[in-house]
Amino acid sequence: MQNFISFNDVENYTQLLNTALEIKSNPFGQQDLGKNKTIGLLFFNPSLRTRLSSVKAAYNLGANCWVLNAGADSWTLEMSDGTVMNGDTQEHIKEAIGVMSAYCDILGVRTFPKLEERDYDYNEVMFNKVKELSSVPVVSLESATLHPLQSFADLITVAEYSGYQPHQKFDKKVKVVMTWAPHPRKLPQAVPNSFAQWFSKVDWVDFTITHPKGYELSSDFTQGAHIEYDQEKAFEDADFIYAKNWSSFENYGQIIPQEMDWQVTLDKMKLTNNGKFMHCLPVRRNVVVSDGVLDSEHSIVIPEATNRIYSAQTVFHEILKTL
Ligand SMILES: NCCC[C@H](NC(=O)CCC(=O)O)C(=O)O
Ligand SMILES: NC(=O)OP(=O)(O)O
Fold first, then answer.
1. ipTM score of the complex?
2. Domain segments of the chain as ranges
3. How many angstroms separate the CA atoms of 63 and 31, rounded?
4. Beta bridge mates, 183
5. Does 149-305 match 7-146+308-320 at the fold level?
6. Residue with the nearest Cα to atom 10 of ligand 1?
7. Which of 28, 34, 128, 303 is the most buried (most CB within 10 A)?
8. What is the model's pTM?
9. In this predicted model, what pLDDT tens digit does every residue of 23-35 receive, in sequence order?
């Protein structure tokens, strides 16, 4: 693996999943791989899980790790070329990434969308700029449009809770439903795009997306998914409910007023096949999902977040192998 930016960087998802399960069963077995290697993590936006799980993953592999929160604990970076830098920005991204890639062997980067101009976000202008300037492999820690480390952790989680065994076929496909849920702020489409990109490809999964009209995701990521506008119908017999809010792709970055209540509740979970509840976190309690669900046996959000260690560790492992 050269870089990890989307599902398209994965040659064989089954092999990658099996490697992750092996690594999870013996997390300190590959400490030689990271010896004298450094993983750098650059955040342009806040993080809890991605930051801490990536640090833990690096340490598990015997690698060093540093973290920089751009702007917050470094100089304010200038992103545009040709700017006369006599204003607020103090260092150009060209020097910053040049220097940072001299200080690490893999560079992880988080760049959220601005949710203003769709083309700017969907062309991944900011992420691609960092990637082009980096002289070392790049890992997405969530870009404007995708969050592959999250989706890979979600795949590991669904596999574990479905009784997945390598080389064994399922009698019946596992029903995974991604549901839109309410939120007071406008949020990116990165997590749902990425989840759809991964789960519509998994051959043992029957994948449905449910959302109100107006919240259609880009069809670049949803090919192969069933779209169901009736949330309760979508929940019937589901093995996994994956909740996430996102703002509109069509009316880019907007929140469209909804009449129906899309919060995930215990009543709705009763429609499922005793389904498991998943969310990438952070989650707004009693807005996206009720306390009743999060505090019940349905919820697997903590094991899901735990698997962020193993998705990151597997990706670093695969890249370190090539260095
Ligand atoms: N990295 C996981 C999700 C990050 C982000 N959530 C948020 O910004 C939630 C913040 C809030 O609840 O105000 C998102 O949806 O893409
Ligand atoms: N799920 C996730 O990426 O969490 P953070 O934003 O806290 O890293």
1. 0.99
2. 7-146+308-320, 149-305
3. 8
4. none
5. yes
6. 282
7. 34
8. 0.98
9. 999 999 999 999 9
Please identify, by atom number, the ligand 2 atom nearest to the C-alpha of residue 305: 1
Collapsing DSSP to helix, strand or coil, 74 comes out as coil
Q: What is the pLDDT of residues 199-212, one digit of tens each?
A: 999 999 999 999 99
The CA angle 184-292-283, to the nearest 5 degrees, is 35
Ligand nearest to the CA of 287: 1
Ligand that lies nearest to the alpha carbon of residue 301, given by its number in the listed order:
2
The answer to whether the beta carbons of residues 312 and 26 sit under 8 Å apart is no
Nearest ligand 1 atom to alpha carbon 281: 2
- Minimal CA–CA distance to 101: which of 113, 90, 91, 109? 109
Residue 150 annotated as binding?
yes
Is the CATH number of domain 7-146+308-320 3.10.105.10? no
Amino acid at 216: E
Q: Does domain 149-305 have CATH number 3.40.50.970?
A: no
Do residues 225 and 209 touch, judged by C-beta distance below 8 A?
A: yes
Map tokens 């990434």 to a residue.
97
Alpha carbon 267 to its chain centroid, in Å, reads 28
**Measured distance CA(257)–CA(70) in Å, rounded:** 34
Which is it for the CA torsion 161, 246, 285, 71, positive or negative?
positive
The packing angle between helices 301-320 and 49-60, to 10°, is 50
Q: What is the 3-state secondary structure (H, E, C) of 143-179?
A: CCCCCHHHHHHHHHHHHHHHCCCCCCCCCCCEEEEEE
